[in-house]
Amino acid sequence: MNTKHSTPLEVRALLFDVLGTVVDWRSGIARQVSSFLERCGVVHVDAADFADTWSRLYDQATDAVRSGKRPFARLDVLNRENLEAAFKAVSIEPKLLPSADLDELNLAWHRLDPWPDSISGLTRLKSKFIIGPLSGGNTSLLLDMAKRAGLPWDVVLGSDVVEVYKPAPEAYLRTCEFLGLRPDQVLLVAAHNDDLAGARRCGMRTAFIPRPAEHGPSQTTDLAPLDDWDVIASDLVDLADKLGA
Amino acid sequence: MNTKHSTPLEVRALLFDVLGTVVDWRSGIARQVSSFLERCGVVHVDAADFADTWSRLYDQATDAVRSGKRPFARLDVLNRENLEAAFKAVSIEPKLLPSADLDELNLAWHRLDPWPDSISGLTRLKSKFIIGPLSGGNTSLLLDMAKRAGLPWDVVLGSDVVEVYKPAPEAYLRTCEFLGLRPDQVLLVAAHNDDLAGARRCGMRTAFIPRPAEHGPSQTTDLAPLDDWDVIASDLVDLADKLGA
């Protein structure tokens, strides 16, 4: 294993970015938004575009928490606010939609499907390492998702446990601390270069896997590793091969 | 299912006391203490008595945290202090023992074996419910234990996440909150009546299973349910039967 550390490899746990890296959020959100719009009789809104808007608002909302502009709030709470903003962006007044239906649609983030290689890759990796998410998702979101999709996590510590969003250093450091491991004993697996950069700054090991369809057919970002990450693999099954799991 | 609640049963998650209910701490600690004493050439100390002493100090130390006499400290930290006290109690000066060896012995709590019915019972229960520990153990203790013993938890939130020890109400309530569930959607499984009483005070459902050998052959406590708990089962396999899992 190619590594930037001079010490021998001693990784005991693998933590995974989830939204984009383990599950395909865009298709899953678009599918559920599409059913919702159909039930409402809305025909002028593209569900995949709506998913992109809703997701972009995630970045803005977590930025506000990271910068201290607002106190920590669970991702379910941020997503619910952003859902209303996403409706406004397509000229639909959310106050005209039943609040309980919006609450239900907000749980779409709990019901996302894994990429085709995720379950088999994670199952193999679990035989050799502690595996868990390191995600912006709150614990119940990650847990509901795992139960529905069969993601075989050993441990689920959502961002509501550490009360901070990646790539803030505490997100990585405090999670390693809960595992009772030094950062260099933990490897972050992500399809996002900025997330890996955050992990490396904290002393964690890093693995990049590309998810070139995460943002749909015209994706331009994160198509390739932008730094010499410790491991580069084509997907989670290839990662299991490369880590001897 | 016999229940004290007027609403229909809506349990979504089962949380388990671990030390005593899922794993046999006394035999496991005695076995590891025995090897340690043998290596040190100590012959006058009974390892099972030593395990009992070490465990009793747990109650005192967590009482001090619950009452606010000292700030929260992880169970690994309390156990390490108590290990020294347990040596003093048998007239062995812990400062004469290598500190690294004591650190290693302290991890005995991470290496406890399940009762014979635990894995099969939990595996069946997991097919129908979210399952996880609700223990005084810190996350890394519970996680290491689960990986070693094959306990198939869906989620592991140690007492270091909520920073409080049972039976303080926050231990139950905050864990339910992380799961995104109301207390009446969560059932505590324990071999200890006082733990179940704590859970019921918070609105959780309760299941008692006896572990009459937890404290060795002369156990006098928790041999039977002391209240009308929602479910009473003989072990975790019987619990799976009774909950239709």
From TrEMBL, chains A, B:
SUPFAM superfamilies: HAD-like. It holds the Pfam family Hydrolase. One of its GO terms (molecular function) is hydrolase activity, acting on acid halide bonds, in C-halide compounds. Keywords: Hydrolase. This is Haloacid dehalogenase type II. The lineage of its organism: Bacteria, Pseudomonadati, Pseudomonadota, Alphaproteobacteria, Hyphomicrobiales.
